[in-house]
Fold this protein.
Amino acid sequence: MITAMLIMIREGVEAALIVAVLAVYLRRIDRPDLRRDMWRGIAAATVIASIGGVVIHSTLGDLPEVAELRAYAGIGLFAAAVLTWMVFWMRANARGLSSGLRERMSAALSAGNVRLAVFTVAFVAVIREMLEAALFLVATATTDSGGRVLLGGVIGIAIAVAIGVVTSVAGRRLPMRAFFRVTGAVVILFAAGLLARAVLYLQEIGDVGSLWAPVYDLSRHRWLTDHTAFGEFLTGMVGWDPTPSLEQVLVWLGYVLPIGWMFLRERTPVRSGTSGPVAVTGTAGTASDAASVSAPGQRPDR
């Protein structure tokens, strides 16, 4: 449940920032009448992604055990790849996120059917976040019950919405750079756990062998097993296994060490004045409104 909550907080905050950029831009150009179309696009993206997640989860539950484990392994591998791409994409494109969305919205307003264009921009901007969230919740459900995962996801979304309200309505400055750095590190650990669990599933059905299993056995310590809340959290968060095979350990370390190093290493410093927390102002009609809704470290347009 906690794993689902953390994942949804990150995905929800990304979606909230996108919504804030679009909403403030429409307010800036004095077209509040188009907000309804924007919200329709966001709602459509959310509904489609939710239905997709439910269908996938229900379908997997009806499969024979061997096919189900293979499917879980495949989902884990795919989700880990998407998570890795997502973390590094956000790091590389965060600065241009706000300006890119504004450019797309500006192009939409010059289209023939303005309302449909605004709906489409909002839909496309949010659907990626929602599909990623649905995929990650399905992957999390391989180590937890569907009900607990759903509850954790709902709590995470509620927290993300609260963060979005604070930034866009209250005009508070939040350290979004630190937020995405910390949650990015958590996501990397989660992805490593998905890979290790995928190896375990494939070994359980005989598709992958093992040279040494278990490497160690800590199952005698009940608090480290999935029979306790702490052990269950470790299993869902980082793929913890008290009796892992050599292949699980190697896959986990082989992912975390290089990927974690590439993510956490310092990048080339940017020019003075280009870093800082995100601020989303609530004042309508100012030239800096849309620019103030920015990803970590973005410099407002002058």
